[in-house]
TrEMBL record:
Belongs to the FemABX family. Keywords: Acyltransferase, Cell shape, Cell wall biogenesis/degradation, Peptidoglycan synthesis, Transferase. The lineage of its organism: Bacteria, Bacillati, Actinomycetota, Actinomycetes, Catenulisporales. InterPro entries: Acyl_CoA_acyltransferase, FEMABX, PG_Glycine_Bridge_Synth. This is Peptidoglycan bridge formation peptidyltransferase VanK-Sc.
Length: 371
C-alpha cells in the first residue's frame, strides 16, 4: 500500500543497508519519472518498503513501466510470492504494464586473487565461466540467490540481464571491498602493490583531497573526462538535483571529494552512503598531471571515510564479467581488483509482464532504439 515519504525514510534509516536507489530522495532525483513509496505491513508494523519509479510508454501515456531499482527492501529469505503478489496487484491497478525489479540479493562472489587468476588464464574469458570450477577458483555460490532466482522464474518473471552485465538499468556485476572489522592498515594490505604505490605517490606529490561544494568544478572535469573516454555526460543540473534531494534526507548522504595538486583540480569523485553501505558513484580526472595519482587519492579518502563511518561495504559499483585481455572492458575490472575486495554477481533485473501486448510493444521499441 502507499506510504508517506516520511514513513519510508524512517524504515530505510532503521536498516543496516539499503540501496540509495531505494530511498525516497531517489524519486526526486529522477525527475523524468513519476514515483511512489509503497509499504508492506504486519499488523501495524511496517516490515518492507519500496520506491517505485513509473516510466511512461511512448504514445501510451496511460501505461507505465514500474521500476524498482535495487529493491524492493523486503525479507528475501522466505516465500517471495507473499511479498510480490500484492505488489503486482497494486501496480496493475495503477496502470503499470510491467514491473521491473532488481533484488539486492547476490548469487556468486569471487575474491580478488581468483579474479586475478582468471584474468591471467587465457582459457578463462568470463567470471561466469569460473562457476563450473568452484573448487579450483574459490568462487562462492549463494544459496539465497539461487532460491530467489528459482522462485522468480517459477512465478513467471523474466530475466533482463544483458550479456556484458550492463544494460539500461543497474549492473548485475559489481566490485566491493568488505570493511566490517577492518582497519585502514587491513584495507591497504589487501590492495595490490600498484594501488599502494599510487596512494603513497599522491601523498608524496602533495595532492590534497577535500570534501567540497563546488559542483561546477566537478562537472567541468567530468565533461572533460566524458570527452576523453567517449561517454555521454549528465548535465550539471542533474548533480545539483541529486545533492539537494539526498542532503534533504540526510546531510551526510552524499559527498563531493576534490583532489588538487598545487591549486589545480586533478580528480573529483562522489560518494553516497546509506547506513553501513557506501558507494563510489561518479568520478572525473584530468588528462594532465595523471602522474600525481589524484584519482587514487580520492578513492583512498572515500574508503577511509567509509571506515570511519562504520560501513560494512565500500562499493565500487559496476563491472562487466569479462576476463578476456582482448576485451576493452577488462580494464575496468583490472583497475578495481587492485583494491582487493571481491567481484559480486547479483540476481539481476527481472520483469513481470502485467499487460503482455503492451509489454511486447515496449520491448520491441527498446530493442529498436538500442539497435
Amino acid at each position: 500500500m502507499p506510504i508517506s515519504a516520511a514513513d519510508h525514510l524512517a524504515f530505510v534509516q532503521a536498516q543496516r543497508s539499503v540501496s540509495f536507489l531505494q530511498t525516497p530522495a531517489w524519486g526526486r532525483v529522477k525527475t523524468e519519472w513519476g514515483s511512489e513509496s509503497l509499504g508492506w505491513y504486519d499488523g501495524r508494523q511496517l516490515v518492507g518498503a519500496a520506491l517505485v519509479l513509473h516510466r511512461p510508454v511512448p504514445r501510451l501515456d496511460r501505461f507505465t513501466l514500474a521500476y524498482l531499482p535495487g529493491g524492493p527492501v523486503i525479507d528475501w529469505t522466505g516465500e517471495i510470492a507473499d511479498w510480490l503478489a500484492p505488489l503486482a496487484a497494486h501496480l496493475r491497478a495503477r496502470g503499470a504494464f510491467a514491473i521491473r525489479l532488481a533484488p539486492p540479493v547476490r548469487t556468486h562472489t569471487w575474491d580478488a586473487a581468483q579474479v586475478k587468476e582468471g584474468i591471467a588464464d587465457a582459457g578463462t574469458t568470463r567470471l561466469t565461466a569460473m562457476t563450473a570450477m568452484t573448487a579450483m577458483t574459490g568462487e562462492r555460490p549463494d544459496a539465497l540467490g539461487a532460491g530467489v532466482t528459482r522462485q522468480l522464474r517459477d512465478a513467471g518473471w523474466l530475466p533482463r540481464n544483458p550479456e556484458n552485465g550492463f544494460g539500461a538499468g543497474q549492473p548485475q556485476f559489481t566490485y566491493e571491498i568488505p570493511l566490517a572489522g577492518k582497519t585502514e592498515d587491513d584495507v591497504l594490505r589487501g590492495m595490490n602493490q600498484l594501488w599502494r604505490r599510487n596512494i603513497r605517490k599522491a601523498a608524496k606529490e602533495g595532492v590534497e583531497v577535500t570534501v567540497g561544494e563546488d559542483l561546477k568544478a566537478f562537472h567541468d572535469l567530468y565533461v572533460h573526462t566524458a570527452e576523453r573516454d567517449r561517454f555521454t555526460p549528465r548535465p550539471l543540473r542533474y548533480f545539483e538535483t541529486m545533492f539537494a534531494a539526498m542532503r534533504a534526507e540526510d546531510p551526510e548522504r552524499i559527498r563531493l571529494y576534490l583532489a588538487r595538486h598545487r591549486g589545480h583540480l586533478v580528480a573529483a569523485t562522489i560518494l553516497v552512503r546509506v547506513g553501513a553501505h557506501a558507494w563510489y558513484t561518479y568520478g572525473a580526472s584530468s588528462t594532465e598531471k595523471r602522474e600525481v595519482r589524484g584519482s587514487n587519492a580520492c578513492q583512498w579518502a572515500m574508503i577511509r571515510d567509509a571506515l570511519a563511518a562504520g560501513c560494512d561495504v565500500y562499493d565500487l559499483r559496476g563491472i562487466t564479467p569479462t576476463l578476456d585481455a582482448a576485451d576493452p572492458h577488462v580494464g575496468l575490472i583490472q583497475f578495481k581488483v587492485g583494491t582487493g575486495g571481491q567481484a559480486v554477481r547479483y540476481v539481476g533485473e527481472w520483469d513481470l509482464p502485467l499487460r503482455p501486448m503492451v509489454y511486447r510493444a515496449f520491448d520491441l521499441y527498446m530493442k529498436r532504439r538500442s539497435g
